[in-house]
Amino acid sequence: MSPPAVVTAFLAGLVAGYGVAVPVGAIAVLVVGLTARTSFRVGAAAALGVATADGLYAAVATLGGTVVAGLVTPVAGPLRLVAAGVLLALAVHGAWRALRRRAPATTAPARRGLDTPSRAFLGVLALTLLNPATIVYFAALVLGRSDAAEPLAAGLFVLGAFLASASWQLLVAAGGSLVGRALTGPRGRLVTALASSTIIAVLAVVMLLG
Predict the structure, then answer these.
(1) pLDDT at 101 > cutoff 90
(2) Which residues contact residue 189 at a Cβ distance below 8 angstroms, ignoring those fewer than 6 apart?
(3) Neighbours of 150 (CB within 10 A)
(4) What angle do CA 117, 122, 43 make, to 5 degrees?
(5) Mean pLDDT, to the nearest integer, of 95-117?
(6) Considering the chain, what is the average pLDDT of its residues?
(7) What does the alpha-carbon distance between residue 176 and residue 199 come to, in Å, rounded to a whole number?
């Protein structure tokens, strides 16, 4: 792969990672609660658990996407349209759900079983993996990319997705009671959900134009 293609694959992973990480839900509230009740070390471990789950889902989607992309090259055009349609549907659904659920968020209890870094990492990793919709999101992105069958591009895409998710979740953990509370409040949840929907919609449009 050429250097520009390498950079493009990595940046695509970054954008995709932020698209799935930015919406603030129960897991982010849990990370904030853990950080506020215990320490940043525990909160950071929980944040990395979320990022690892996102990275695993991106890797699974990428591995499957590279195999499928190699088999469906003759219908790459229609496949890109389907993938873009899935992304647009996810964006609309995310925005609609955010506007519909504007009630104040109650702080999720910081589970006492997660009060060490190792337990926080494994526990939050398991909880995040219970959301299989993430793999649908990554699969749509992978199948819509023209370089899906390139191993290096796939690896960089996964790396970018992991780093984006990790940086955002660590920001939430570092914020603790300050930034974290702002993000997990009703206005913060609405803004982050709409921001995520916008990112996903832009990805879909770029895919259609590409």
Answers:
(1) no
(2) 23, 24, 25, 98, 101, 105, 183
(3) 18
(4) 40
(5) 65
(6) 77
(7) 25
d(CA 196, CA 125): 21
- Distances 78 to 8, 45, 49, 147 between C-alpha atoms, Å: 23, 41, 36, 16
The amino acid at residue 101 is R
Pairwise CA distance, residues 118 & 144, whole Å: 36
Q: Model confidence over 134-193: pLDDT tens digits?
A: 777 777 777 666 655 577 888 898 999 999 999 999 988 887 656 556 666 677 777 777
| pTM for the model | 0.71
Whole-angstrom Cα distance, residue 45 to residue 118?
Answer: 7
Q: What angle do CA 121, 9, 165 make, to 5 degrees?
A: 20
Which residues make Cβ contacts (< 8 Å) with residue 56, sequence separation at least 6?
Answer: 129
Helices (H), the chain: 3-21, 26-37, 40-71, 76-100, 117-128, 133-143, 151-175, 179-184, 186-209
Average pLDDT value for residue range 57-65: 80
Separation of first and last alpha carbons in the chain: 18
Contacts of 175 (CB under 8 A, 6+ apart): 32, 181, 182, 183
Residue type, 194: L
Instruction: State the Cα–Cα distance between residues 134 and 125, nearest whole angstrom.
Output: 13
Match 């390139």 to its residue by tokens: 150
